[in-house]
Amino acid sequence: xxxxxTSSRAPAPRPPPVGPGRACGLSGPTRPGRPATLRNxxxxxxISHAPMRRRGLCTHSKRSxxxxxxxxxxxxxENLADCPVPSAHRRLLDCHEHWHATADSYMxxxxxxxxxxxxxxxxxxxxxxxxxxxxxxxxFANWYGEWQKSVSADSIMKWIVKARNRIVKEADxxxxxxxxxxxxxxxxxxxxxxxxxxxxxxxxDIMMHMLARxxxxxxxxxxxxxRRWVDRLLxxxxxxxxxxxxxxxxxxxIRTAHHKSEVGKCTLPxxxxxxxxxxxxxxxxxxxxxxxxxxxxxxxxxGEEIIEDDYIQSLDEELGERARQRYGDFTVHxxxxxxxxxVLEMARRMLTVDKSLATAAWLLxxxxxxxxxxxxxYDQASKRxxxxxxxxxxxxxxxxxxxxxxxxxxxxxxxxxxxxxxxPKPAGERPNRQEAVDVTGITRDGRHSHMLCLFTRExxxxxxxxxxxxxxxxxxxxxxxxxxxWEKLSSSTD
Length: 494
Ligand SMILES: [Zn+2]
Ligand SMILES: [Zn+2]
Fold this sequence. Notes:
- This protein is α+β, with helices and mostly antiparallel strands.
- It has 3 domains: 37-48 and 316-493, no CATH class; 71-173 and 235-286; 175-231, no CATH class.
- Helix content is 35%, strand content 18%.
- It has 12 helices and 13 strands.
- Strands 1, 6, 7, 8, 9, 10, 11, 12 and 13 form a 9-stranded antiparallel sheet that branches. Strands 3-2-4-5 form a 4-stranded antiparallel sheet, sandwiched between helices.
- Bound molecules: zinc ion (ZN) (2 copies).
- One zinc ion (ZN) is lined by residues 83, 89, 258, 266, 268.
- Residues 83, 89, 258, 266, 268 line the site of one zinc ion.
């Protein structure tokens, strides 16, 4: 593991992720107004949420002795159907390849521009190729019109159109190589600065430079350095993020074209890249994870790099079906606030079946679920990083509601103790601690709801729940990053 330290003190080893049955030692989030209880979340991976990767599967055999009949029987097993939009679908996969080529050339300005130009032009071509097949696609005008309407207000999609015209008809994009530094001292004290830097400086170079000049007063918190390429006409959005977002919107319309043609998986052959399997994940995980060449975060207290552990779970029917089989039927309606009681009931059932509950965030737009994220953290710094990534995902998905589901330790404060000052002892380290299932909902329009349900584990392994209760205190601090994203979006659209 790489560590960062400007002193000779050996960094403390990174604690292991929290496992069943032990406290994570996080500080309970403080709540303005009612410092009555402490809670801290314990993240436990849910088996059914484990990332599914294709490893070691040979899907590209060059053998020439495969018979036609063998292929036919394989297709029959997989229930594949002809691709209803082969040109557009193939071009979408090309975009995915171009995106990786652009990411791989991040430190080389000319190669980056070259690959980005190809990526933007191909992103634009997907819809043109799709439109050429309008006559053979059922109900095209309806669903394509709806998709066009849904992306018409999307600033990144509008930028893609203009960028393609600039590349083809005018000149190159005005690209800037930047570094963004973000210092987070706690949930409420944050500082950010953006620098224009030559692309040859890596995140590691910039981090070492900043740590060497760190003021003595700053000895706690975390520092993130992010390398960015931006265009003059889209200054707030990093270009790999922007193109990943545009790619996700196109996946959406190509998926609809297949769905309307009653095709689940099509016969379009997968590519050599493991992540390029012809599936319809809105934004594939490979485009969401930033490796440390693009973003590097260091815990200033220990000098250690904080690894980004969370991941985005794609919403698909298969996941819904697996959940139904495992936990039974659940009908959930309404926005993030209205869903809190039902989701708490659902979380109780998941805990009863699995004996542990992974920390998860649901992202909603109105009463529609638009994203799901599993979050993992092992200390306060990694928890903050996870919540920043949640906020980032909220902005990307234009979510206006979030539900956070977790297991938590709950403990009453000592008489006269003010949890808002100093460093209160974490709930998990207090003798009067109790376990709880905890669900918080917040919305962009400022509403908030928090419910929890205490439980005990019997020796037999059975779990006994107390009745669910509402917590009327304010929004917990750990959701501040999400609130800040919404405030920023509101001020930029005013
Ligand atoms: Zn297809
Ligand atoms: Zn990929």
